[in-house]
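Look over this today:
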Amino acid sequence: MSADTLSFWTDIAAIFLFINAIILTLIIAVALGFGWWYLRKGRKKLALPLLYAQVYALRVEQITMQVTDVIARVPIEIRATAAQVTTTLQILRHGRYKPQG
């Protein structure tokens, strides 16, 4: 192949790549434009379901906190009652309170 033939095909390839880059850029721009448009349109439609989801999540969190408080209260009350009984027994046994330690 001669240098002129190679030069001709190199120019054709450069033009072809340039046109492909422009087409690809336009396709991506149109896709992003439609995506943005649908996102804005969809955000308005999703506002109420997302609000309901937030309310349900807060309810679940509140109920979970109440249940964990009830569960955690049991060993705390057992320990407090045991300490009160121990103190009362020490007072009854010795007539005065002697702190353990």
